[in-house]
Design goal:
Helices cover about 10% and strands about 40% of the residues. By secondary structure, the chain is mainly β. The strands form two sheets. A five-stranded antiparallel beta sheet has the order 1-2-7-4-3, with helices on one face. It has a four-stranded mixed beta sheet with strand order 5-6-8-9. The protein is globular, with a radius of gyration of 15 Å.
Length: about 150
C-alpha cells in the first residue's frame, strides 16, 4: 500500500510469529534485540538513531487471509499518540469488498518503520498498534498492543 508518509518510512515487512505487538528501538543495540525477538534475520537497516526511532508494528494474520499492508501511520502530536492503520490489499484490489476470512491466528505480518524524532509528540506519548485498543489487549498474541514512550 504505502511505503512512506509524513514523518515515517517503511523499512521492511516480514512474516513473523509475533502477532498483536508494538515495540520500539531507539538505538542500534535495541534494534538488534528487537530484530532477534521478532525472529527477523534481515540485516539492520541504515538509519540515524539521532534523527529516527524504529517502531515494530505486528498485525495478526489468519490462514485464509494472510495479506495485510500498512495504509498509514498517524502521528497525532496533540493527542500524544502514534499508531498504524492496516488494510487488506486483496480487498482493496476488489474495490474494498470485504472478504470472508477465517478467525484462526497463524502468525503475523511485522512492519519495521522509521519514525522521524522531530515529528513525534513532545514528551510522553502512546505508541499503539492501531487507533483503537485491540479487543484482547493487553493479552493477545505476544503484546503489548500499546506502550508508553518518552524520548530524550
Amino acid at each position: 500500500m504505502r511505503a512512506e508518509g509524513d514523518g515515517w518510512r517503511l523499512l521492511g515487512r516480514f512474516r513473523t510469529s509475533v502477532p498483536y505487538a508494538v515495540r520500539l528501538a531507539t538505538d542500534a543495540e535495541e534494534l538488534e534485540a528487537e530484530l532477534e525477538w521478532h525472529g527477523i534475520a534481515a540485516a539492520p537497516p541504515n538509519w540515524d538513531p539521532a534523527r529516527e526511532v524504529i517502531a515494530f508494528f505486528s498485525e495478526g494474520i489468519g490462514s485464509s487471509c494472510p495479506e495485510v499492508a500498512i495504509s498509514d501511520i498517524t502521528i497525532d502530536r496533540d493527542g500524544q499518540r502514534v499508531y498504524a492503520t492496516f488494510a487488506d490489499p486483496v480487498a482493496v484490489q476488489l474495490g474494498n469488498t470485504p472478504r470472508a476470512c477465517t478467525a484462526d491466528l497463524v502468525g503475523a505480518q511485522t512492519f519495521v518503520v522509521a519514525l522521524a524524532r522531530d515529528g513525534l509528540p513532545a514528551g510522553r506519548f502512546r505508541l499503539a498498534l492501531e487507533e483503537d485498543v485491540v479487543g484482547c489487549h493487553p493479552d493477545c498474541g505476544w503484546g503489548p498492543t500499546e506502550i508508553s514512550v518518552t524520548l530524550e
